[in-house]
Amino acid sequence: MTSGKPRVVLGVGAGIAAYKVCELLRRLTESGHDVRVVPTADALRFVGEPTWAALSGHPVSPQVWDGVAEVPHVRLGQTADLVFVAPATADLLARAAHGLADDLLTNTLLTARCPVVFAPAMHTEMWEHPATRDNVATLRSRGAIVVEPAAGRLTGADTGPGRLPTRPSCSRWPAASSRAAPPRTGPTPADDLAGRHVVVSAGGTREALDPVRFLGNRSSGLQGYALARTAVALGAGLTVVAANVALPDPAGARVVPVGSAEEMREAVLKAAGDADAVVMAAAVADFRPAAYRGSKIKKTPDGEPEPIELVKNPDILAELGERRRPDQVIVGFAAETDDVLANGRAKLARKRSDLLVVNQVGENLAFGTPDNAAVVLGADGSRTDVPRGAKEALADTVWDLVAARLKPRG
Ligand code: CTP
């Protein structure tokens, strides 16, 4: 492979949308990426090997038995800065989710440790089938980015979700490897985060009572990690401050594990020093026990519970709002059950944030579920409704709104 250039493996599945990927390949090579195309055998029925080889400037094979001396089945994945799979068919998503390795592309997916992005394209019934939903959830839970397909006319007469994603996700694909890209000479597109440092807090803090007990909350970290994966896909340098998250580290991120609100405060403020944007998606405990007991709290002789005295925790988001540089974008999250918008507007002003993502908690939304619905309020009076959907879709909207508020670089 050519040295110095960001290395992209472009996996191509057996879908008619393969013809659209030729254009993407051109854009990637023209913007300075070294692209190895790895189609499945059936993908070559849609677009042939000479097309991929000519556009990428590299030999192309779907199987592991060519160029064995270079051990391509492990080398391609190990050395890639980004693996991008388009179109990701239902079959390919299933094989990836189950860890099968029966061709060069699935071998590459198992050896890659860089960000992996799937851009699905298939008929609506296949996309909505529980088997595909489960496979997508599995891949996402392991850190892959599975972009939501676009809705519209599909092959044949039918319409619905299942088209290869276009804007906004499509324009961002090349940005996903920009960590390794040479400095840009032209202007940065307004909607990507290439060259920016962003900080995301995720999970829920735990406030220790004694060596075995804590006060905690039900935050899983799923939304914070969806924000993290999407930020990496947009080319950001990313620090994740993770409180008690039992999910694999997002590829391409620096993860700082913390336990309590005070630990989170220290890590977030430190990382925020040179950050362009900070997104506080973590559920931070407002209170902590006034005293930590070094040994386990025992039942009182009469069996009555001892009262627990609480003290206030620092409000990290409010502190970020106070200390912010004028060019920094600060985003908060709020979970509300009543008067959602009024409470959200008041919180946005109180914490001096630029954006507040307001979740309505309940109806199986928000905590521990792969879906979310929200209203994003802006300090400029704007309001963006995000309908119920994958946490990645909400993350996409949040980064769009952040990118629009970042000052252009000189
Ligand atoms: N937050 C924070 N530090 C805290 C508490 C919350 O940084 N000690 C952040 C959260 O990460 C989130 C936002 O503030 O981004 C909203 O948190 P929330 O607890 O809903 O706000 P409160 O001001 O505590 O309001 P409420 O009265 O609803 O609890």
**Strand portion, in percent?**
15-25%
How many β strands by DSSP? 19
CATH 4th-level superfamily of the largest domain: CoaB-like
Rounded mean pLDDT score: 87
Q: How many domains would you count in the coordinates?
A: 2
Low-confidence stretches: 167-190
Helix/sheet category: alpha/beta
Shape descriptor: elongated
- CATH topology (level 3) name of the largest domain: Rossmann fold
Radius of gyration: 23 Å
Quaternary organization: single chain
Fraction in helix: 25-40%
Largest sheet: 8 strands, mixed
**Highest-level CATH class of the largest domain:** Alpha Beta
Terminal Cα separation, in Å? 33 Å
Number of helices: 13
Q: What is the CATH-assigned architecture of the largest domain?
A: 3-Layer(aba) Sandwich
Spatial strand sequence of the major β-sheet: 12-11-8-13-16-17-18-19
Please characterize this protein's 3D structure.
- The chain is of the alpha/beta class.
- It has two domains: 7-177, Flavin prenyltransferase-like (Rossmann fold), CATH 3.40.50.1950; 189-405, Rossmann fold (3-Layer(aba) Sandwich).
- 30% of the residues lie in helices and 24% in strands.
- It has 13 helices and 19 strands.
- It has helices spanning 18-30, 49-56, 72-79, 90-97, 104-111, 124-128, 130-141, 169-172, 222-233, 261-272, 316-323, 340-350, 391-405; strands spanning 7-12, 34-39, 82-88, 116-120, 145-146, 150-153, 159-163, 197-203, 207-208, 214-215, 237-243, 253-258, 277-280, 287-289, 310-312, 329-336, 355-360, 371-378, 383-390.
- The strands form five sheets. The protein has an eight-stranded mixed β-sheet with strand order 12-11-8-13-16-17-18-19, sandwiched between helices.
- β6 (150-153) and β7 (159-163) form a beta hairpin.
- It is elongated, with a radius of gyration of 23 Å.
